[in-house]
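Sample entry (77 residues):
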Amino acid sequence: MYFEIIGEIEQIETMAIGGNIRDIMRLQKQYGPGRWRKLKGFARVRLLNGKVCKAELHWYEAHGIGKKKLKIKRFLN
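Predicted structure, serialized as C-alpha cells:
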C-alpha cells in the first residue's frame, strides 16, 4: 500500500451491497463468498513521501474477511 492510515476512519457510509457492486464476482473469486459491501469514509493518511493529509477512502469489506482494496479517491486539503 502506498499510504498509511493515521487514526480512525470517520463518517463511514455504505455505497453498495452484494449484487449492486460492480466487481462482486472478482471479490468472491479472489477472497471468498461473503456479504460484500462497498464503503467510503474520511481519514488522515501519511503518504510515502511523509506528507500527512486528509483523504476520502473507498474500500470493500465482508464480515470475517475484513477491508480489501483500500484506495484514496481524493485529497481534501
